[in-house]
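Replying to the earlier thread about multi-chain prediction with a worked example.

Input:
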Amino acid sequence: MVKRGPTAPAVEVDKASFSYNNIKAIDELSLQVPSGISFGLLGPNGAGKTTLIRLLVGLLKPKSGSVRILGKTPSRKTAHLIGYMPQLHSLYTELSVIQNVDFFARVYQLSDKHQRAQRVEEAIRLVDMWQRRKDSVLRLSGGMRQRVSLACAIVHNPPLLFLDEPTVGLDPELRVTFWEHFATLTKQGITLVISSHTMDDAAHCDRLAFMRDGKVIARGTPSELQQATGKPGATLEDAFLYFIHREDRSDS
Amino acid sequence: MIPSQAFTIATRIINQLIRDRRTMVLIVVVPLVVMTLIGLSFPEGTVLDYIAPALLATMALFFSFLLTGISFLRERSQGTMERLMASPVSRLDIVVGYLFGFFIFALLQTLIVVLFTIYALDVTYQGDLWQIFIFQIVIITAAVNLGIFISTFARNEFQMVQFIPLIIFPQIFLCGVIWPVEQMPNYLQWLSKILPLTYGVDGLRDIMLAGKSLLDVGFELAVLVGFAVVISIIAAFTLRRGAAG
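Result:
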């Protein structure tokens, strides 16, 4: 584990830009995520949330600006410090639940057999899939696959977790269960960066960044963002629309 | 020695295939059916004896290339490559892991096909059986690496399917499988010199028809090993972290 001061941010993005074939996906974006909280990246499809997460996990390199996680530039050397749950389920469907989680435990170099078995069991139990551990992923529902995918991301006990739209396609009940899992993880001191386009998810986060066209248009706690609208009883959806309109006005 | 991370990947591939029983059955049955049909289409035993080494080399190349290429592509399309690329695993670990994982199955397939061709189709051969196997192993190694390399250029299954005829058909027609390379125009003969199957067919024919030893076909072996090494290094480079999606 990297030794860091208690107030040092888990994620620091400084004027980072990234484009795919001259289309700007991230546009001079700056952001800081404090340690030990759940941080929501909220925005519509195409806002740049996935690209930002891919920059943070080291799959992409910024064309300009800088990206740091736990004080370091993302690379293969920092890979063991992060857990990553991509948008797709990203599982080996022929393998069983336990084989999938165990594979990623090995990939993250948990070489001690006893310790690995313990971590694999803890991760699978956390997502309530222990009863189904011997089942092929192929036989699992979409929601169950999401849970296994989360187990694969947390099996090596990373201090920083990136979850790209983890609640997409989940029924309301399972969505609540997922947020209970996330709360358990933040209680353990893990920093969560969660992307989503639903405001239901946003309300569960400690802090939020509203994203649009590769930029952060507002940031703060859910209540700060709601209060910024100046309307009593404003929802997060109202807050998001308020910031979009404000941005449009300042552009014009 | 295989690095531990490559070993982890190889073990996972083996587990995956073993759990997929239908694929396992097809890996064994399909080459036997193809070989039987080809065998039956040659009523003259001597013609089959002559063409068998080339067919064995072609089948080893074709099936190993196909199996590895498609499953490497699946790694990308199902999103697990994205996960692997964000993990501490190196690109070389992935390529070497794939090589060893698929090598076991390609080897099993080749053992069955060679034995079936010799004993069931009654193809006569010179040389030692173990030397035939060693030579086939080298062809498989080159083909598995070629499969990995080509699949790094395909972004989806449709693209990979286009690569299959592009890689396989020219080799069948230009590498001396059907007619001798010497009878082709000069420029095609030059082209055949850069295709690995040319060396596979030449070497295996020398062993099976002329009774030569592995030492005698050292040049062909060296070219195939060199091809496998170079192509796996290039594959590790083309497998960029950013190209995971």
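Chain A touches chain B at residues 54, 57-61, 76-77, 79-80, 82, 84, 86-96, 99, 103-104, 106-109, 111, 136, 152 (CB under 8 Å).

Feel free to reuse this layout for your own posts.
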